[in-house]
Amino acid sequence: MKKKMRVLASVCALSMAVTALTACGSKDNAKTAATDDPNAKDTITALLPPVSANFQSSFDQISKDFTAKYPNLTLKIEPASWEDMTQKLDTQVNAGSPPDIAFIPSDGIPKYVDSGMLMDISDTATDEMIKDYDPAPLEYMKNGKGLYGFPAYMEAHAIGGNKEFMEKAGIDYKKVQKEGWTFDEFREAIKKGVVTENGKTSRYGFVFATAGVTSKDYLDILVKSAGMPSAFNKDLKYTYTSKNFLEVLKDMRVMIDDGSMPKELSSIDAGKRWNMFLTGQTMITGKGLAGFERSAKENNEKLKNNDPNAVKGSIPVEYVVLPVPSFAGAEAQTRVAVDGYVTFRGTKEPTAAHKANVVKAANFLSSGQVAATTNNELYVAQITESSRKAAESMPVDRDPDNKAAVETMLQHAVPARPDIPTDLGAKALKLEDEVIVPKLQALIAGEITPEAMYDAVKTAAVAAFGEDGVVKD
Amino acid sequence: MTEYAKPIKRRKFNSDAAWGYAFIAAALLIFIMFTAYPVVSALIISFQDYKPLGSTFIGFDNYTETFKDSLFWKAIVNTIVYTLLTVPVSLFLSFSVSILILPFKKRMQTAFKAIYYLPAVASGVALSVVWLWIYDPMPEGIFNKLTAFFGLGTHNWLGSSTYAMFSLVLMAWLSSHGTSIIIYLAALLGIDGSYYEAAELDGANFFKKLWYIVVPCLKPTTLFLLVTGVIGSFQVFQNAYLMTGGGPDNATTMVGLLIFNNAFKYFEFGKAAAQSLILAAIIAGISVIQFKFLGKDVEY
């Protein structure tokens, strides 16, 4: 009896151990095609956020359509919220078992290239596929000589104005949409937008979100139009040590000091500034995305129908797309967000067949009907021939002036920089996170001067890239 | 001698002991997998340039880089300041609330315990969203309305270096005392009533009883809460991450946030592991000091 109990106990302990260890085991290779047969059955996994309002609810249909096109393939999509997306993906990448495809901003590519887990598809993507994409956004999916996925859209980062307020302030916004404006012209315009009642400002000329996830955007968008389209010039020298950088910092401060922007700007996040725009507390807001026109229209509709879900205290607003002003006599260049479907590999080398299947899936998601539907919902331009064709029959209720303004801005889009080595890119990212953003917060809060911030950035840049690695002008 | 040894050997392998080993094995396995293994892994990774496809051994580079990093030391100072401001006040508040709850009947005590424990059950993210709303920087923000009412003006609570740390500290002061209150209350109920009776016979008032009976009797509990509070405070991450992101100008960057950023933002797992182990050593050192100086006359 005692012997039986000992055996039973040992079996219990052993089975627990085995169960636990099995759970920890990698299933990395389970999904990949075991053979090089291109017609063998294969499953492709994708981790996708809610790119547009109806994107995630159409996953079943997308998977069905994909299998209808490629009968031997299954597209298994795992949905993730925008908040969870990065953390989920990073955990999977560092555990060595990422999904085959993930939807991320293209500026995240260097980080994953450095980890060795991105899959270069330049030798697998067919000419037919490549020709379908506009060259400018496709470049954003490259790093060095490698191509690491396909772009979904290229969106201009602009600013947006309240049509009625701008007309009242005498701003010729249609001219600005076509020809752009300098910082001095912009400053005069936003001054006119300020409304003061009983000594208190009831409306600001300009409010840009600078807190939370938007902390990097403000400065990054402005410096593009100050002769610094990238953190590195063509000689790979760090550019934010240029005197134009200091000029931008001074201009940022002056807009707060003259009351055109709120002194509490450093705590205003994306949600707050959109609320301020819809409730008439600011004439112009940033950053502006194409979809904001739709959001404003939806809220107008709710107000019209006395819908209690309309933003509390909001007023009807006609959203006007405006370009970012140019600084220090430089040419205005538009910062763009190119997001897309990047391709990953596991810890083991993928078979040629599986790699080709992953490319087919990434191409399927980023072009044709899927891209047409998603980009239409987002109010962003189609960037593939196939999606342009598919979108022809889709109605878009978009202001033609706004559409034309975005197209003008996209003609001045900052070009991609796949030539920047990943180690330089990583250093610049860290400098941005640990010095530029914190100092910018202090500058906006009025705790340091533009000169102090410029000196801090310069010192950190020299420490990171060396005296010869930075721009001196 | 051999005769004594035999029964001991038999006791080791009787059926009860076998079951004991089986159950210990389960707990031990979980401990090895989820505690010991990650710690050993972190130690190994701290000497590596970690990459999923193959790491390289780089000796003490991650440690020397960390010690040279001014942001790491700023984060340490911020964490110490946060700990010094939050832990003692939190202990005092928990102790005071427990004393106030003690005279009630059991049902009322339970009700208050539940009320005070509620924030611990609520999601930290949800609580942070509420606090972000309270700290709205514009004049119509709740906290700004309150301070303006008392003539203290309006402030950019989370956006200025002057107020950001205070805002996080205030948030800690006003939430999550539930666990400490329950532990204090359990300890208070464990004090023998005869002590109070004797003190009353000697004419002791409320404060005398508090100082000469309650405080000494609760010393082991206070020491436990102090040590665990300091450990928890040194590992603080969520508040800074969700409320300020470490800003402005790194005024609220805590060590936990710095480690998270190095690991998940920059994929510098080696450096993050080294910083985690340095933090663990600091916490262990402080805990030893606490036990040495505050635990001298504590009886368990």
C-alpha geometry of chain B: globular
Tell me, what is the CATH class of the largest domain in chain A?
Answer: Alpha Beta
Task: Classify the beta-strand content of chain A into a percent band.
Answer: 5-15%
Q: CA-to-CA gap between the ends of chain B?
A: 37 Å
Strand arrangement, major sheet of chain B? 1-2
Fold and architecture overview:
The complex is a heterodimer of chains A (473) and B (300). With 473 residues, chain A is α/β, with parallel strands linked by helices. Chain A is built from 19 helices and twelve strands. In chain A, the strands form three sheets. In chain A, strands 2-1-3-12-6 form a five-stranded mixed β-sheet. In chain A, strands 8-9-10-7-11 form a five-stranded mixed β-sheet. In chain A, helix 4 (109-115) packs across helix 18 (422-444) and helix 18 packs antiparallel against helix 19. Chain B has 300 residues and is mainly α. Chain B has a two-stranded antiparallel ribbon. In chain B, helix 4 (70-101) packs antiparallel against helix 12, helix 6 (124-134) crosses helix 13 (238-244) and helix 12 (219-234) runs antiparallel to helix 15 (269-294). Chain B starts with a helix and ends in a 6-residue tail after the last helix. The model of chain B has no long low-confidence stretch (mean pLDDT 90).
Give a concise summary.
The complex is a heterodimer of chains A (473) and B (300). Chain A has 473 residues and is α/β, with parallel strands linked by helices.
